[in-house]
């Protein structure tokens, strides 16, 4: 039905500020309830006014309740180090709003509902059509919050609905179905279309299933439709548009990509879900590698089976022919080796780790299982010959390396304090920074999978990590290196609350749920 028009802010920054305030602020600051003087209940679904063709949609719960509210408040207290983080955040918001004579408590809290949604509805060149949808208990107060000395705002009508438009900024606003929508004019037209009967994203079977899988107690939910993204790109690029049907065929029945953000008392957790037997196998291999890396790693990454994955990619490149086939021929001419037969064939599971016992004691290594010491040794000899041939004029110094059960060569670069060592031994191929990293790569004194903090982070993750970052140790190094820096000092109280970041997947059959977690103490 037609909406009562209201004036918009005359500056883009004010509209953006309003959207940012409600999207980022209130999970902590606004856990209480707003008023409902205009009949809204504060539980409207933002996706109900978003067109079903939207390529991307995301929503945030800005008024959490129950366990979610408790977890959000607990996290906020730990990160901010204050007993009342909500009040601290409100003070920051009020500082931003003070220029316009507004405050969170007076101008936002009374009308804000439970959720805020953001959608991309189209693409014009490099500029997306977007809409920010605010669930509102009082749409009149919500629109009034945006009023700020608007001078170049005109009333327009679309399909009988009056909305406000700022030609200078190409921004519009309208109130529909207990929501306030702010965005580009084209996106606002799409919102009105939905109100007039066009399909809404909320009614999409894919979105309903994704929401059901995510569960009701999510802090944030994100949804991307591969087919919709392709359609947007094709509509703005004539060259891509001519290939759209072929690209759609490659996508086949690709399912929408979804991600869910949840809050635990001691961690934030992001989860995505895909169905792929290959992904399930690759995750297991990468997780095995990460757990076997040195227990003092501040960063550890599992790479899966490098040889077979690279071989599959190489097969795709070979199909392209032309210049790509020429590159492969040049590799053979330079090294005397066949890339597939003499290099990729022996490469098994691989991983990367970084160790940092101090600012002046940093090292790490790429370590790859090898099925053939003979082929690996030949590859290392070829690499040494090439570096000697082309790097001598650059001041690179090569010497033989032998020790800790490995043989190869050591490369000195004048700009680096540590040598780079390329070696093989004990069934592994290693490219390491520093001799001690070679020893740890071949036979670590302790394994990361047995480290207490790694175990605790894996429990928070709910999966076996394929990526692990020891934030606690990294912040400690930053304190040593940047302790007197004014900018770092401001961030330090928040950074010291972090423990670790990890990513990994929970595998059930061919279904892979990939999680990302940031732990706090």
Automatic annotation (TrEMBL):
Q: Does the keyword Transmembrane apply?
A: no
Task: Report the leader peptide range.
Answer: 1-25
Q: Does the keyword Signal apply?
A: yes
| Superkingdom | Bacteria
- Pfam (any one): DUF3352
Note the coiled coil stretches, chain numbering.
none
Q: Which InterPro entries does this one have?
A: DUF3352, TAT_signal
- Protein keywords: Signal
Protein name per its UniProtKB record: DUF3352 domain-containing protein
Naturally occurring in which organism (per UniProt): Paraconexibacter antarcticus
């Amino acid at each position: 039905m037609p909406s009562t028009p209201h004036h918009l802010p005359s500056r883009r920054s004010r509209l953006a500020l309003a959207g940012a305030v409600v999207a980022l602020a209130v999970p902590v600051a606004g856990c209480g309830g707003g008023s409902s003087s205009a009949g809204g209940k504060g539980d409207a679904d933002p996706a109900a006014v978003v067109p079903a063709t939207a390529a991307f949609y995301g929503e945030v719960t800005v008024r959490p309740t129950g366990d979610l509210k408790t977890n959000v408040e607990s996290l906020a207290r730990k990160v901010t180090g204050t007993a009342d983080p909500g009040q601290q955040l409100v003070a920051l918001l009020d500082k931003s709003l003070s220029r316009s004579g507004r405050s969170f408590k007076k101008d936002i809290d009374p009308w804000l509902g439970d959720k805020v949604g953001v959608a991309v509805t189209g693409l014009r060149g490099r500029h997306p059509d977007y809409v920010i949808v605010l669930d509102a208990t009082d749409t009149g107060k919500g629109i009034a919050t945006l009023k700020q000395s608007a001078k170049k705002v005109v009333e327009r009508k679309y399909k009988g609905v009056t909305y406000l438009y700022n030609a200078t900024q190409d921004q519009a606003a309208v109130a529909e179905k207990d929501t306030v929508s702010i965005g580009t004019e084209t996106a606002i037209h799409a919102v009105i279309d939905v109100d007039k009967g066009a399909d809404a994203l909320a009614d999409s079977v894919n979105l309903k299933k994704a929401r059901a899988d995510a569960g009701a107690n999510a802090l944030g939910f994100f949804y991307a439709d591969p087919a919709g993204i392709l359609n947007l790109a094709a509509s703005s690029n004539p060259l891509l548009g001519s290939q759209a049907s072929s690209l759609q065929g490659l996508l086949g029945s690709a399912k929408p990509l979804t991600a869910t953000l949840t809050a635990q008392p001691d961690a934030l957790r992001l989860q995505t879900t895909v169905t792929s037997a290959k992904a399930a196998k690759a995750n297991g291999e990468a997780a095995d590698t990460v757990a076997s890396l040195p227990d003092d790693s501040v960063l550890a990454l599992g790479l899966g089976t490098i040889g077979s994955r690279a071989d599959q990619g190489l097969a795709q490149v070979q199909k392209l022919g032309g210049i790509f086939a020429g590159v492969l021929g040049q590799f053979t001419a330079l090294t005397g080796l066949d890339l597939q037969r003499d290099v990729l064939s022996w490469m098994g599971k691989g991983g990367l780790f970084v160790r940092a016992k101090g600012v002046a004691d940093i090292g790490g290594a790429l370590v790859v299982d090898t099925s053939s010491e003979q082929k690996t040794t030949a590859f290392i000899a070829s690499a040494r010959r090439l570096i000697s041939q082309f790097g001598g004029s650059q001041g690179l110094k090569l010497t033989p390396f032998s020790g800790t059960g490995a043989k190869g060569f050591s490369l000195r670069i004048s700009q680096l304090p540590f040598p780079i060592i390329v070696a093989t031994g004990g069934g592994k191929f290693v490219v390491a920074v520093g001799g001690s990293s070679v020893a740890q790569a071949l036979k670590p004194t302790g394994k990361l999978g047995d480290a207490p903090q790694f175990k605790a982070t894996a429990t928070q993750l709910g999966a076996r990590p394929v990526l692990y970052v020891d934030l606690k140790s990294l912040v400690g190094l930053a304190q040593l290196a940047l302790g007197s820096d004014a900018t770092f000092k401001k961030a330090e109280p928040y950074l010291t609350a972090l423990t670790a970041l990890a990513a990994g997947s929970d595998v059930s059959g061919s279904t892979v749920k990939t999680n990302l977690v940031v732990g706090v103490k």
